[in-house]
Design brief:
147 residues, alpha/beta, Rossmann fold, five-stranded parallel β-sheet, 7 helices, 52% helix, 14% strand
Length: 147
């Protein structure tokens, strides 16, 4: 049985954004983990990807809306996509209370809640700092994100 790994939004962004200094190391790690694992994202990650990739202040070369739409259609074919469910919300509320999560960090807590609701124990991310408080998941990253 293959392990499940959840991809944070930044992983999709760095895979798509070849101008990023993280692109090469993220791409290399992605190629390694996809061989033996089922890769998961969520509808939240798809929305966040659209926001980041079309915002001038977020990426070197923002994409036109049609390109983002096409990317998301492609991602939906490549990855397993988790939905927010009632169970996800219940877990989110527990995490918010347990870790005193506030503000934008609630988005990160929702990713963890989605992972727990779908029995996914590992998160591939560049932003270790955003998730290190959540003891319920294991973090992996590319060579340039670890340490």
């Amino acid at each position: 049985m293959r392990d499940k790994i959840f991809l944070d939004t930044n992983i999709l962004v760095y895979l798509a954004n070849q101008d990023s200094p993280f692109h090469s190391s993220v791409h290399q790690t992605f190629q390694e983990i996809k061989k033996e694992n089922d890769l998961w994202i969520s509808r939240q990650v798809l929305r966040e990807y659209a926001v980041v990739m079309t915002r001038v202040s977020s990426v070197e070369k923002p994409l036109p809306s049609i390109s983002v739409v096409n990317d998301i259609k492609k991602f939906k074919k490549i990855f397993f996509v988790a939905d927010d469910t009632t169970k996800t919300t219940e877990i989110l509320l527990h995490l918010v209370q347990k870790y005193s999560v506030k503000g934008k960090a609630i988005h990160d807590a929702n990713i963890v809640a989605t992972m727990i609701a779908n029995n996914i124990g590992t998160l591939f991310t560049i932003n270790f700092g955003d998730f290190k408080r959540f003891k319920e998941v294991m973090l992996i990253g590319s060579k340039s994100s670890e340490g």
